[in-house]
Structure formats: C-alpha cells, structure tokens
Amino acid sequence: MSIRAYTRPRKDDRGQAALEFLGWLPVLLLVGLLAVQLGLGAFAAQQAGTAARAAARVAADPDAEMSAQQAAQEAVSGWLADGTDANENDWGDGVTVTVRVEIPSVVPGIDFGPAEKSATMPAD
Q: How does pLDDT run across 32-57, given as a tens digit for each residue?
C-alpha cells in the first residue's frame, strides 16, 4: 500500500462542509440578531436614564425655557427622539420625571416595548 491511497479525498464527501455551513447559517444569523437587539435594548435604557435626568432638571427649575418633554427629546439620540415620552410628577419639594424610550426592533414583527427610567430632583 502506498501513502497516496490515504491522502486522496473521497469523492462522496465533496460539498459536505458547504451543506453543514448552510445548515448552521440560520442559527448563526439568529444569534447575531439577538446580540444586536440586546445592544439596542441596553442603549435605549441608557438613553432613557440620561433623558430622565435632563427632564427632571428642567422640570425642577421654575425659570426653565423648555418643557420636560422637550428636554427629554433633546437628551436622546436623534433616531430615538420620536419614541421618547416624559411624564412629570410634582410632589411639592421636588419633581419626579419618568421617561419611556421605545426600543427599536431588529427582528420584524416583534415589539420589545419601551425602556423606562425615572429621576427625581429637588425643586429650586
């Protein structure tokens, strides 16, 4: 027997790697989309916290030139501003603002709801 007999590729194995890759491709794409969606959710939550603090500062200042809603929308990234909503709760000595930012969806047809954060500031 020669060594050559063991090094030749078998003809019936041709294309097997390509078929296995095609079988795993949907799983890999789904994992990638879920990773991107997780990042978008974390980013929206961070933006909601920033917007809540900015809106609470404006709502606590009686001389502010804008509303808490405007401050919240200006504090988030432009592509998230349309899905931003701020609600004020004045309790006398201060104000609490709750901001909701819609989490964009990478997966069509699935709604992940809003990210919601609150901030409280003492009244001036």
A: 998 999 999 999 999 999 999 999 99
